[in-house]
Amino acid sequence: MTCADRSLSASRATAVAEPFSDHGGAQTVKGMSAQLRWDAELLVRARRNCLLTFAGMTIFNALFFMGYFHAQQHPMHVPITVPVTRLDLMIPYQPQLLAAYVSLWIYLGAGPGLQRSFSEVAMYTLWMAALCVTALGIFYFWPTQVPPLLPGAGAHSLPALLHRLDGAGNACPSMHVAAATFTLLRIDEVFRRPRSPLLLRLINLAWFAVIAYSTLAIKQHMALDVAAGALLGLMFVLASLRWRPKCASFRTT
Fold this sequence. Notes:
Layout: H1 3-21, H2 23-73, E1 80-81, H3 86-90, H4 98-102, H5 104-113, H6 118-141, E2 144-145, H7 158-166, H8 175-192, H9 198-217, H10 223-242
Parallel strand pairs: 1-2
């Protein structure tokens, strides 16, 4: 190769590299790389634990409801009615939000489903189980119930049917809110580490908020139940983030 050919090749290489040599081009490449990282990370997590999550959630829920209905039907004492607050009186009965209430069972699956390894899924499940056992112990030793539905609430509506099937017991703390709080922060932690878009974190927060509000809107819980459930969930989720497998941290390199 002659000197002229070498100079021409060098000039072409410089021309190709120039668009990425400035600050803006570097930021673009970096942004594309970051996007690929969080996309790939979440996809790997979801694919790896899909079947495990489905099977595990089925077994977990079956065991939980066995304990739930046993504590409800055989409490140690006569249930105490949870006081009605001003907030409860301000929120109207909204039976159309039953779908949001039931969506918890889909939402809960996202927590273990987005863990990266079997050990993380196992530890996540143990902490959630500890939360549930604690709540069931409270239901058994300190049983509570919500007031009956208002006369105009609609005796034949689906939420009214839920009240009759579920009974008025096991009110405080709200297990719906406790489990949703635990799931909210664990999913947010998964989204935050690989720097996922803010929109994903907002969708996660919005889903939690709708579930929590629905417990009040269909009168399945009172405001005090929701507050106690959020506190219970917060206690266990913080503990689960503190004591977990070391491989849980997302690696950006």
